[in-house]
Amino acid sequence: MQNFAFLLEQTNQNPLAGALPMIIMMVLLVGMFIFSSRANKKKEKEAADMRDNLQVGDEVTTIGGIIGKVVSIKEETFVLETTKEKTQIRFLKGAIRSVDVRIADVIAAKAEAEKEAAEADAEEKK
User: Fold this and answer.
1) Helix, strand or coil for residue 82?
2) Residue 23 above 90 pLDDT?
3) Residue 88 Cα distances to 40, 63, 67, 77, 80, angstroms
4) Measured between alpha carbons, how far is 80 from 57 in angstroms, rounded to an integer?
5) 32-56 tens-digit pLDDT
6) C-alpha to C-alpha distance for 94 and 24, rounded to whole angstroms
């Protein structure tokens, strides 16, 4: 019985000694969970913004690996043109993995190039 009394005396001296590492571990786990959920929410928001900003003419890649050009958009679906034969397939917007080429960027680049060309012509005439 003396051996068991020795164990009881040690635990009575500092009751938090055994609980402190467990408390620290729980706080770390909760912190990691919160950080992870915030990162997931950010990714979901970026994906939703990408789908909402989809335009006719954009080149996209689907989660199935199909690459093509958007030819029409409805509320939750879009039609993708995939080959030279103008094969068209309808997808849900959630099937978009990435927008590879935005038509708005292409138009802006083309306008910038035309502006630079016009300025260069104007300089040559002087």
Assistant:
1) coil
2) no
3) 33, 17, 11, 13, 5
4) 10
5) 999 889 988 998 898 888 888 888 9
6) 40
